[in-house]
Write a structure and sequence with these properties.
With 713 residues, the chain is of the alpha/beta class. The strands form 9 sheets. Strands 1, 3, 5, 6, 11 and 12 form a 6-stranded mixed beta sheet that branches. α11 packs parallel to α12 and α14 packs antiparallel against α15.
């Protein structure tokens, strides 16, 4: 920004406190002629771009007490032209009623009997005037606009010397010769500001406030499209719209007529990607759970595409209308955001802001801790006040907005800037929904005025330059922390997700309650759900879960006897609910084995179900068996308390007989072996005297036996 332009904005900033939200009509040429209370003329339509020496046509809306047939013979309409506005502070002064010297006047007779050819009366309450203009000379036959640029024009209806009604407007006198077009890009932004109304069951209700705002949005979008149709354009004007995905979904069933009206306008819009339900990205990042925000963002994008298939859902734009931390900005940058759109009041709360000195026709830079940056478009603090206009007089305000944009473009050009590399996002103060009565004519003027062009806001990073001061960008710094702590909420959600998963496995797959529970779970992360409401939503689900578990009745403790190694026994489970339920049974014992493991059992509705269990005995005797009933999905949900059973095993007699027989066989074998050994010893003792060795000395072999080389016999 040049030094001259900085000084201009500084003067304008000092004037902000004196500018009313709805600008007063400009003063008449001679304030002494003004009556104490003047009626206001409305402007229905007018020529805005005027070629040199081309006529100026304006259609005026007369006040209720000033019908055309009541004009007196001395009634006149005086049109006064003023010089070109050279800068924005002067323009703001003009809006406040502080006019400089007039350039020329042109009188038209309103005498019905005279029938001035430059005056037409389409209806009883409107007057259309045609004023000849001139550029190079001054005469009584035309109204002079000697220089190109934006000129104020004041219109007075007078009865004699008394002013009875007045209004003011602007015209844009074009240059004498064609020059290279330098059209400044302008973007329109509309956004829903009423947050979704989430019920305790997680569903979204379209509240009365939301309905009113969405009706206004439908009207505004229709007015934008009608402006293009009026000009004979086949392509819908570009505009950026932010609407809550969950509200749009709910609207289709709760108010289908309004949904249909909105669909037509949204189909021609670029929709800002939003989470399915509002969730604060700063709080998500601070809690170490950025993926929760990302998941809801994807769900919201899918919902918008499903609801409005023809629209373009754009993640590259983020309307920073609430606190945004550096971590959240980094997350959004990673997810594809390339442009922050920041209301001026939020901008003033951001570190590094330049306040009213800011050049809002260029992009600022939001610096992130990881070294990346986000281009930032700041909503102009003067024009957003103009766009807050509601009710009658929208056409006149539209002319004022377009005239102010042209003055800004003129200053940029005079300072040597490239107008095509500057731009402005038009939005109201709350970055909400401007009035249709204003947006219709405003869109028509933006589409038809030389020097301005309507573009999508997503194009700004590539078409609008970054504001530099002394060669360096003005950098905004986002806070590093937030007071919003979502840690406890996310812990609550994790616990509830486990319980929902467990109980969804108990009820049939077709049971609608599973979907209802998921609806609550998906609503819990939203920051529009308060902590107390979240606790109530969880308590409601826990009561439903308890009711389901209470339907299941296990058998009372009982005893059973096993008479074989592989046995079966039975017991009954009862389900008091009117729908079938599924449970998982587990039996355990130190002396029994259950080869089938856990058993998944479907309990018939409102009846008993017989359960058969296979058991293998490991030893005789009496032992405890424990019956546990879980949800099919997890051991963490115990459906009924543990049931102790008693088992008696006396089925091992065959094994004892086998062992006894084997023992007797071993004893008989041992006895036979020892008997044969004793018999051999007795036979050997009887044959000793007949052995040759028996003739020697006891203990010594005979001589020939000693000399023998044969082994002993």
């Amino acid at each position: 920004m040049s030094r001259r332009y900085r000084s201009i904005v500084l003067v304008a900033g000092a004037m902000l406190a004196t500018i009313a939200t709805s600008p007063a009509p400009m003063a008449a040429a001679d304030p002494a002629q003004r009556a104490e209370a003047l009626a206001s003329l409305g402007i229905v339509a007018q020529t805005f771009d005027i070629a040199p020496d081309a006529p100026l046509t304006i259609t005026l809306q007369l006040p209720p007490d000033l019908a055309t047939e009541a004009f007196t013979p001395d009634a006149t309409l005086v049109v006064t032209s003023y010089g070109t506005i050279l800068d924005r502070p002067t323009f703001l002064q003009v809006l406040d009623g502080d006019l400089q010297r007039s350039v020329d006047t042109f009188d038209l007779s309103l005498d019905p009997a005279l029938a001035d050819p430059n005056v037409a009366r389409p209806t009883a309450d409107t007057v259309t005037i045609t004023v000849p203009t001139e550029s190079s000379q001054r005469s009584s036959d035309a109204l002079q606009f000697p220089q190109p640029g934006v000129h104020p024009v004041v219109l007075d209806i007078r009865s004699g010397d008394r002013v009875v009604a007045e209004t003011s407007t602007f015209i844009h006198r074009l240059r004498l010769t064609d020059v290279a077009s330098q059209a400044m890009p302008i973007a329109l932004a509309l956004a829903q500001t009423v947050e979704p109304d989430v019920s305790i069951d997680g569903s979204v209700t379209v509240s009365a406030a939301a309905t009113e705002e969405l009706e206004a949005l439908a009207d505004s979008l229709a007015a934008i499209d009608a402006a293009a149709t009026t000009l004979g354009l086949a392509v819908a004007p570009p505009r950026t719209v932010q609407i809550e995905p969950s509200v749009l979904e709910a609207l289709s069933s709760q108010n289908p007529d309004l949904a249909a009206r909105l669909d037509a306008g949204l189909a021609n819009s670029t929709l800002v990607a939003l989470p399915r339900l509002p969730i604060d990205p700063s709080g998500s990042v601070a809690a170490g759970q950025p993926e929760r925000y990302t998941q809801l963002l994807r769900q919201g994008e899918d919902l918008l595409r499903t609801s409005i298939p023809q629209s373009r859902v754009d993640r590259s734009i983020l309307i920073a209308d609430r606190e945004l931390t550096d971590g959240a900005g980094t997350l959004r940058s990673f997810l594809g955001t390339r442009l922050l759109m920041m209301p001026f009041d939020r901008f003033e709360e951001t570190e590094g802001n330049t306040g009213l000195l800011t050049d809002t026709t260029q992009l600022l830079t939001t610096a992130l801790a990881d070294g990346s940056t986000l281009p930032t478009a700041v909503i102009d603090p003067y024009l957003d006040d103009q766009l807050d206009h509601r009710g009658e007089g929208g056409y006149r305000v539209a002319v004022e907005i377009v005239a102010e944009l042209l003055v800004l473009a003129q200053v940029i050009e005079q300072d040597g800037g490239l107008v095509t590399r500057h731009g402005m996002v038009l939005a109201d103060t709350a970055l909400g929904v401007p009035d249709a009565a204003l947006l219709g004519p405003l869109t028509q003027l933006l589409l038809s005025t030389d020097g301005l062009r309507l573009v999508g806001a997503a194009d700004f990073p590539s078409t609008v330059d970054t504001w530099l001061v002394d060669g360096r960008p003005i950098e905004l710094t986002l806070p590093t922390s937030t007071d919003l702590d979502l840690t406890a909420r996310f812990t609550l959600i994790d616990d509830m997700a486990k319980r929902i998963f467990a109980h969804a496995s108990i009820v049939p797959d077709s049971d609608p309650r599973s979907g209802e529970w998921l609806t609550v779970l998906e609503a819990l992360p939203s920051t529009v759900v308060t902590d107390s409401m979240a606790a109530a939503m969880v308590a409601r689900l826990d009561n439903e879960f308890a009711d389901i578990r209470a339907c299941v009745t296990a058998p009372k403790p009982f005893s059973f006897t096993l008479t074989g190694k592989n046995n079966q026994f039975q017991f009954k489970m009862n389900n008091r609910c009117d729908t079938e339920l599924r449970v998982r049974l587990r039996l355990s014992s130190s002396k029994l084995a259950f080869p089938d493991g856990d058993q998944l059992v479907t309990l018939l509705a409102e009846s008993d179900t017989t359960v058969e269990v296979r058991a293998e005995a490991l030893s005789n005797g009496k032992s405890s068996v424990f019956l546990r009933v879980y949800s099919p999905a997890t051991d963490e949900i115990v459906v009924v308390p543990e049931v102790p059973l008693t088992a008696r095993v006396n089925s091992l007699a065959g094994l004892s007989q086998l062992l006894t027989g084997a023992g007797l066989l071993l004893i008989a074998s041992w006895w036979a072996h020892n008997w044969r050994r004793s018999r051999r010893q007795d036979q050997a003792a009887k044959n000793v005297p007949r052995h040759p060795s028996s003739n020697g000395i006891a203990g010594e072999p005979p001589p020939d036996a000693a000399a023998s080389s044969l082994p002993p016999s």
